[in-house]
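Purpose: get a first structural picture of the assembly so the mutagenesis plan has something to point at.
Setup: two entries, given in the order below. No constraints added.
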Amino acid sequence: MSNDSPTFIGRLLSSVELKLIFSWLLVVAVTMALDTNHTYWDSPGDSAEVVLRQTVLLGFFALGSAIIIISGGIDLSSGSVIAMSATVFGSLMIVLDPEGFRQGHVSSLAVILAIAGTLLVGAMIGTLHAWLITSVGLPPFVATLATLVGLRSFGRGLTPTLTGGKSQIDFPDAALRATLKDVTSISILFVLFALVLWILMSRTVTGRHLQAMGGNEQAAKLSGIRTDRMKWLAYVIGAVSASIVGIIMFADSGSAKPDAMARGYELNAIAASVIGGCSLQGGVGTIPGTILGCLFLRTIIDAVQKIVGAGSDVFEGMIVGIVVVVAVTFSQRGGGKLSDKRFFSNEIGWTVIPALGLLSGLSYLLFFGNGNREWYAPYQAVVVCVVVIACLIGRAVMETFTKSSDAS
Amino acid sequence: MTSPIISIENISKRFGGTRALHQVSFDVMPGEVHAICGENGAGKSTLMKILSGVITDYDGQLFIDGQPVEFRGTRDAESMGISIIHQELNLVEQLSISANIFLGREMRSGWIFRNDRDMHQAASELLRSLDCDIPTTRLAGSLRVGDQQLIEIAKALSIQSRIVVMDEPTSALTESEVERLYRVIAKLRSQGATILYISHKMDEVFDLSDRITVMRDGQFIETLATKETNPREITKLMVGRDIESLDLGPRPERGEKILEVRNLSLAWPGHARGYRLKDISLDLHRGEVLGIAGLMGAGRTELLECLFGASTIPPTGEILLDGDSIMPRHPSEAKRSGLALVTEDRKRLGIFSNMNVGRNLSICAMHEATIGPLLSYSKERTTGDETVEKLKIKTASLEAPIGSLSGGNQQKCIVGRWLLTNPKVLLLDDPTRGVDVGAKAELYRVIRGLCSEGLGVIVTSSELPELLTLSDRIMVLSEGRKTAEFAIADATQEKIMEAATGGWQPAHG
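Result (structure tokens, whole complex):
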């Protein structure tokens, strides 16, 4: 409790948001320094557009995911909801204006109805989640695991029925596609969406009730809060936000492939929320924090791409993994000072040291071994591995011999 | 004289803002049964948790056999021969009896395989030595509480404990189980074990112990030889001041009838008795405190939950509030019709530990703190400050985390949260549980003050003196039925206990 500073400035300085902004600036600065192609110097606009597009696409459903997490649940289904929504959007356009779809010019009415229908389907999926959780009594993990698996399959079944046997729906209308994927308009849309959710969470009774429910569901119910309705709202927001992403991503990638589209994205959304300060125990987290979490995550992925070079979407998962571990380690509540913590002084700690060393060496090989760098030689990976192991052993020895200070 | 087996020297411990232990020092001699007495919140359990390695950060020093020790966990304490039988039992319900007894110290045959047969055999022998012949293959979760406790004792024996700590072991036992426990304690003692026996039940303490240590408000008061003292002296030391004579001012005028309950019953599917509550009728007037007494499992909490629409299955019967028939199906309906419930288990069902004091106060009446559709932080702050002042809640600010407050002040926050909804009837379920003595008196004053503002209050308590202090009438529950009702002038602890334990006699009318 001692690190809960009572003053406003103190709280601001210790907030996740500010830490994220500083970390983000650091990543940008490091990238500027290390990127041999000087992309951030030469074409800042292009780089910004790439990062912004990715951030916005992640941001929509990460915000939905964050609201579910803050209210004490979890949504594993967003990747499948995205794929399913793209499929539904395409299918609705085929059904509503088959002629226009074939000729590459879908009527505006059909487009509007298709978007409305897709969002409605999103709301229905959210309702299904809420029903499974509140009335059937499934844990959120199980309920959304079922739709994670089920909806993708459903989308795959739907596609050939409507396209006459094809496994994907191609985006029909070039002009419409340009509108829907335009980075300025989706950014504006995202800002509006985030603003609405931010006001909801920080400035309305409903938002406070969601937060209370996430902190202590039983107490919330006994305080006269309709927890079942709150859950419905959270899961509907979660699923609808994924549906929005489904529509945009359909335009962005030019086709809806229900088998491969947005696979595994749900975990990115959860990761972004957690990096942004949401606690998976519920009750803790903010909308601005989550947005910064998305921005930070996408920037660092972009930075590694810039530094390492081509083909680096391979490393995306690895980066997300590392960032989640590091971010949560640094922002753990009530964790005390990092220097007081004992990471390596027990059996498991000693055992993990070689694994971490090997991981560092191999990462070095993978990151820098592919390009044409004159300073690079494979033996350096061995050096990295040895140095990391030596450092960690040093830390472990230090932890073992310093007496814990918890008696004070 | 022999040297002490346990020496406790100047041990202090704080939890957030609450002082749980302050400079406690005393000795325990080898082979004695040493009782530790004190009210709830006196610090007995905290001290025992330190002794058994559950709590590892504290100030002061602990000596075992004259050697200073610093436990880093329960394993360390066990290796010194100390085991504790907690008030809340620590069994893995899905595992068998023998698996529980040997949990973490499983027998093996060779390097790899677990030797279940030997463990069952050893466990059976242990249980037999405790006059218990339950098959050790049964799952711990299928046992009655008394038998579960015996398993804990067997566990303590299996690690050859020299020091056994029993934390209020009889609170959930039937009379015959208590007798069996007495026999077990006698046996342990004959084997040379030292026993620390925590209880506030005077008869047990005087039946069993050699010496008695009294604690109050986290402080050591005195250690007395049992032969040289008497229950009255110990009680006086425990309470410190005569809590019954606590002056709460004149009782407020009794107003018109506000709440009436007719034949309220709550089914209990799958249980031999078939009901949790049966044909409960009561009425409550404005400005009046109705106390509900009863042992554990008598149905006190269930009754309040039914009134508040929080029971898992709907009750039958009739509830009239201000003459209107209500039967809330959800706490939100109860709240709207003017009821408020302060729950028994503050940590689990009351506070929102992720939110600060101000937000914990405003949560029930959020709609009072809005301008149009949006929350007004300044309105929220104003009502929060008013409540803090009215109930004299001791907090650094509204922004302080709720966990930094003492138990009594947390409880005041929860009462305050409900007062903001302008209730007509306040239901308080054991409101002073885990609250220290000073804060109790303040809560009593708050309750009395609310009555004079015209609220009707129903309060349950596990402590009879508290009910006698607070209530205008006392209703007694026993096994889900109403067995008696006393006006405060006629009520005595003896009469109430008789009605609470005596089973059911048909109450006429």
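Chain A is about 75% helix and 0% strand.
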